[in-house]
Specification:
The structure is a single chain. The chain is of the alpha/beta class and about 260 residues long. It contains seven helices and six strands; from the N terminus they run H-E-H-E-H-E-E-H-H-H-H-E-E. It has a six-stranded mixed β-sheet, sandwiched between helices. The longest helix is centred in the last third of the chain and has 30 residues, at about 175-205. It starts with a helix and ends with a strand.
Length: about 260
């Protein structure tokens, strides 16, 4: 009888463990590792360390942090590296939780293209367009020097910082100090111009209207004509500015948002 009870308990425990594993699989659902280095940029040890870092951050905050490197993004989508990125994300069921929240960085080595894709409301709360623009500066300088491990490590660490701030209700956002300062400055400038115009009009009213007021006592005008002329000219030159080096641009599509460019 006791043996039978033990067998039943063992069967129950095995079934419970199986159910937990299935549930976990359904929650994550990703068919790729957190770090997938198809282009072979990392050593085996570097890959393992980055995988562990990304896994820890992803599971702590419930938002997947992914890295994928490929030889040519056109193998996944011919219309651009960003579209290739969200194609990989969706085809391989990336993301954490029922809504598959996650952020993925893709490097395509053929033309040195990169893209970053953010998916899910919780992910986009942590990484809005301003945050994504700031985030790219953390790793692009490393990639420019072919420091792949350093760039990926900085990316994961910075993602952790963003997610921590979002979890505490203080996501990375643009400071309002300078925009407010500009508005105040423009308001004061507009007020100064208005006051200057009013003051000038008041001075003009006090001036006499005809040229007779400026004639000396011994000089008589046989013909009186008043001429008032005023001519103002202004010009503005608009100059273009340009900068070299890598470039990036905001993108949308695939149910999420992100950025792409060259390194």
């Amino acid at each position: 009888m006791k043996e039978r009870i033990r067998c039943l308990l063992l069967t129950f425990i095995i079934a419970l463990v199986f159910c937990v594993n299935v549930s976990a699989t359904e929650q994550t659902g990703a068919q790729l590792y957190y770090v997938t280095d198809e282009a072979g940029l990392l050593s085996e040890n570097e890959n393992m360390m980055l995988e562990k870092m990304a896994e820890t951050v992803s599971q702590k905050y419930g938002i997947g942090v992914y890295i994928v490197t490929v030889e040519d993004y056109r193998d996944f989508h011919s219309e651009g590296v960003y579209k290739a990125t969200y194609t990989i994300y969706h085809e391989y069921t990336m993301g954490e939780g029922p809504n598959r929240d996650g952020i993925m960085l893709l490097l395509s080595m053929d033309d040195r293209d990169w893209a970053m894709f953010c998916y899910g409301s919780r992910c986009e709360y942590a990484f809005n367009s301003y945050g994504q623009q700031k985030l790219e500066k953390v790793f692009l300088d490393n990639f420019g020097e072919n420091d792949w491990y350093g760039g990926f490590e900085d990316y994961i660490k910075e993602c952790s910082v963003y997610l921590e701030k979002a979890a505490s209700g203080k996501p990375v956002r643009a400071s309002l100090f300078f925009p407010i300062l500009i508005v105040i400055g423009l308001s004061l400038l507009a007020a100064a111009v208005i006051v200057s115009v009013i003051w000038q009009k008041m001075e003009n009213v006090s001036k006499k209207a005809t040229a007779n007021a400026y004639v000396s006592a011994g000089l008589q005008l046989t013909e009186q004509t008043d001429h008032f002329t005023h001519k103002t000219t202004s010009s503005r030159k608009i100059e273009r500015s340009s900068s070299g080096g890598g470039s990036s641009q905001s993108e949308s599509g695939g149910g999420g948002s992100g950025r792409s460019g060259k390194f």
